[in-house]
Each structure stands twice: as C-alpha cells, then as structure tokens.
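Collaborator request, handled under Task 6.
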Amino acid sequence: STLFPYTTLFRSNLSAFAGLIINPARSEVIIEKNSEHDSSYTVTNGFDKPVKVEISIKNWNNSRENRDIPVNSWLFVPYSCVYLEPGEAKKIDYTVKSGNLSGSLSAMISFTVKSPDYEGINLMTSVPVYMTIDGTQNISFDIEKIEVKKENNNIAVNFTVKNEGNVHLRLNGGMKIIKGKNIVSERMINDLSPVYPDLTRKFSELIDAVPKGVYTLNISLNALGKTVEKSIRMRVNKYGDAAEVRSEERRVGKECRS
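Structure tokens returned to the collaborator:
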C-alpha cells in the first residue's frame, strides 16, 4: 500500500470547481458583542454522479487579539458531510457567535469530494466567513511603497499596503498622474483582495502611459470610512520607461541649476 493514497486539489476563495458549486463566494458578518448570526452556503452538485461532500472548518486570518481563539468556539457548522444527487443543491447552515470578542476573526469552510471521474483524487474548495465585532474596529492602514515601470503601452504601478488595524480591508480608490495642475492619466481601483490585520499585501495596477516628462503619481485608497493617500515624483523618458525621481536626484538637480 502507498503512504498517501489520495491527492487533494485545493481551490481557495473560488465558488466552483469541477462541478461542485458553492454560493456565495464569501460571507462577511458585522455583529455586536455577545450576539449570534445565522446564515448559510448553498452547495450544488454539478457532476453527473452522486457525491458525498465532506465539510470542515479552520481559522484563517484573525486579528492579533484573536490569534489563539479556536475556530470551533465562534463558528458552528452542524454537519460534517452532505450527500448530493446530480444537480441537487442543499443549504449548509452555519452560526457565528461573537461572545466577548473584539476586532475580527475569519475562517474557511472547506468542501471536499472524491472525484467521481478519477480514482484517488480529492477535490477541495474553501469559502471564507469573516466576522467583525461592531464597535471594536481599529481601522489603520498605510501605503508603504510605490514603484513604477513600463509595461507594454502602460505604466505598471506596484504598491504595498500595511494593515495596522484589527479588521481586514477591502480597498477601493484610484490613482492619477498629475503634471502641474492637470490630471493627465487616471485609473479607478476597485475591490482589491483583502489586506488582513497586522499584514502587508502587494498590489499591481496599470495606468495609461504618458509622454516624456516629470510627473506626480498619486494613489488614494479608502476602506471602512478611512482614506489614505501617497504620492511620488515620477520621470518618464522618451522610450516610455518610468521611474521614481529620488530625493537625492532632485537635490542634485537643484544644485546644478543654481
């Protein structure tokens, strides 16, 4: 016999794979202390054969004060498995309880099936549940670093966001390239992947290229009522290559002109 007879294929944060469909793709609950909230996911069997779906839960990304909180102390799923005929859908109920917790907690509910088509293959998808305790949120984040470079006929803007608060952030906003008082290029930023408490996350967005010159690149991001901005000076050469104008470079330029 082999030591590991099954291979498991993981698909996190996806709502469907290989015939098994989970809806919705995520759940976000804002709840007061010492309260509970009931909700559900719907699981649909898109295979042409019956399947047994195993259900499990695990902690995902909790804020600092909740790192040692067991997942089964706040998230409750009353089923360990469900049987589905081809095309059948069933609701999987769950309950979250806030107790005397603060900040935020998150978990993954995972659904695993043995592939009906390939022996020895397990298929798993996981969908998140986020719980935020209302009135205890600390919303604090910053744009730590911005880098620019040419990418085809665009400028790629790479930036890092650090979340110093105790709730996960889904950022929206925009970026713009400014010359003098004029906005010469602009791009909206919508529903970025979450930045979890006490962690950083890198993002990359494209903005339309601009002619040769020196510009200001501004990024503005907002989440949960808070807005943060950061700007850099940027030089674009005649080939469209973009780079930040460093403070040392700006000082040297001033000395040469004096």
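The cover message to the collaborator said: "The radius of gyration is 24 Å. The mean pLDDT is 89. Please let us know whether this matches your experimental observations."
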